[in-house]
């Protein structure tokens, strides 16, 4: 079955461009469009998309609040949110990730990256591009813990290997890269990531990365 996509952006020309790219793929179907967050909520309820391609800055309701209402507590719909951001990293992207977005993508990303990102998010994974993640977290270093705060009790439930995996996830490494770094199989890494998410009550790798920085386990610029 085709992945059902809802396009949310206040610029009609961009929506048209995205539609042309996505409709050229046999496994993707654009089921609707919205020009702001309020329209997006209505469309999500009516159309039940699998993935919402979400702009941040829009009139009436921005992409952060729309994401929060689509994916927040008590929401059991299938929709995953993939946030679109500009090259200079919109200051609201961190809030969108906290709100429940499954990842973010640059608006000027190549067509093949856009298509792949939608497939990844639809499959329940997180779109966490390493280079963008590092730049984003470095940019907001001043808003994150200094490392002097007490470590959350929840981290104490993780094994040493799970802590290692969480740190590598926070650096933006893929399962394959983590496996190579730790000299284990990808299947083992997937198991560790699953345990981390379950123990910390997190939705996906994006929230795990944000948690690692907010808890002070990892600090921007650290290797």
Detailed description of the structure:
- Pfam families: GerE (PF00196), Response_reg (PF00072).
- The modification 4-aspartylphosphate is found at residue 55.
- This protein has 223 residues and is of the alpha/beta class.
- Helix content is 47%, strand content 12%.
- It is built from ten helices and five strands; from the N terminus they run βαβαβαβαβαααααα.
- It has helices at 12-23, 37-47, 63-71, 93-99, 111-122, 130-139, 160-170, 175-182, 186-200, 205-214, and strands at 3-8, 28-34, 51-54, 80-85, 104-106.
- The protein has a five-stranded parallel β-sheet, sandwiched between helices.
- Helix 1 (12-23) links the parallel strand 1 and strand 2 (28-34).
- The longest helix is centred in the C-terminal third of the chain and has 15 residues, at 186-200.
- The radius of gyration is 17 Å and the shape is globular.
- The mean pLDDT is 82.
């Amino acid at each position: 079955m085709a992945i059902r996509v809802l396009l949310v952006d206040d610029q009609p020309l961009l929506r048209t461009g995205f539609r042309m790219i996505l409709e050229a793929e046999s496994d993707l179907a654009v089921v609707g469009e919205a020009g702001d967050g309020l329209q997006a909520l209505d469309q999500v309820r009516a159309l039940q998309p699998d993935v919402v391609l979400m702009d941040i800055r829009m009139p009436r309701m921005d992409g952060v609040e729309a994401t929060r209402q689509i994916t927040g507590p008590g929401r059991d719909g299938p929709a995953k949110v993939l946030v679109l951001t500009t090259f200079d990293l919109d200051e609201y992207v961190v809030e969108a990730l906290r709100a429940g977005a499954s990842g973010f993508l640059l608006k000027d990303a190549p067509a093949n990256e856009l298509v792949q990102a939608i497939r990844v998010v639809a499959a329940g994974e997180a779109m966490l591009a390493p280079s963008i993640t590092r730049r984003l977290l470095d940019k907001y270093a001043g808003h994150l813990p200094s490392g002097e705060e007490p470590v959350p009790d929840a981290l104490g439930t993780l094994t040493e290997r799970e802590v290692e995996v969480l740190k590598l996830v926070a650096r933006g490494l893929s399962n394959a890269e983590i496996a190579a770094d730790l000299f284990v199989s990808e299947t083992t890494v997937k198991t560790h990531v699953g345990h981390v998410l379950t123990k910390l009550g997190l939705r996906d790798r994006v929230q795990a990365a944000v948690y690692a920085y907010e808890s002070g386990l990892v600090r921007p610029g650290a290797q």
